TrEMBL record:
It catalyses: a quinol + 2 Fe(III)-[cytochrome c](out) = a quinone + 2 Fe(II)-[cytochrome c](out) + 2 H(+)(out). GO terms for molecular function: heme binding; iron ion binding; quinol-cytochrome-c reductase activity. InterPro entries: bc1_cytC-su, Cyt_c-like_dom, Cyt_c-like_dom_sf, Cytochrome_c_Oxidase_Subunit. The chain crosses the membrane at residues 243-262. This is Cytochrome bc1 complex cytochrome c subunit. It is found in: Cell membrane. It is a multi-pass membrane protein. Keywords: Cell membrane, Heme, Iron, Membrane, Metal-binding, Repeat, Translocase, Transmembrane, Transmembrane helix, Transport. It is an enzyme of class 7 (translocase).
Amino acid sequence: MAFKRNRRSPLAAIIVMAAGLALTGGGYAAATSAVEAAKPVSAIATAEQVTEGKKLFAANCASCHGKKGEGSSGSNVVPSLIGVGAASVDFQVATGRMPGQASGPQLEKKKPQFTAEQISQMAAYVASLGEGPAIPTDAMVAADGDSANGNTLFRINCAMCHNAVGAGGALTHGKWAPALDGVEARHVYEAMLTGPQNMPVFNDANLSPKDKKDIITYLKYVEETPSMGGYELASLGPVVEGLFTWVFILGFIIAITIWLGAKSN
């Protein structure tokens, strides 16, 4: 009877509720800490970076993308930057594609107009507008993965546009897939994460971080390994090789045939 009275007392209910809240709060705190620990170091930005990035954004980007990165519609469509993440800013600005200087089928790579610190500040500000992909760390883009698996993944997912060895290729309506020779590993990773311009997005559900590292390793291998078959015709594939055969080899055979015919006469 004493046990039943104690169990039904208000103090027992308070103890049970406190224990439940402690367990729930402790579990949430542990899960949050695990997620924060798993984030790349580059995802952590200071308030000062965000403030400076906002100033740079207002002076150089807001005229097109809006004061709060909301973009614009109508005749001059400019995409919203809310949720694109720091990786998208780092790719576009560090490769000089942004700020865009003129409209056209595709933005070209050029010399960046901002320092690395300024790019980090703008990336931090845009990342504060909405959660998105973070800038990958050096460990994530190190070329120490499985190049054989990277070759397979690249042929399946990328070669139809970028060529089997990343030599680039033409697309429709004046667009093109750029050559990947000499492209920084960080920018290759960011392009897969964000899908700039004509490129599809390869998030971690499509290609895991390990898969992305393997692709980077394969591209680095191709870049550093000379062709074992002699002159490779820029690795542009069978179309170029066939054209070379028709123009030069068959042309040479025809010229020899004409010369022999003229000599015999």
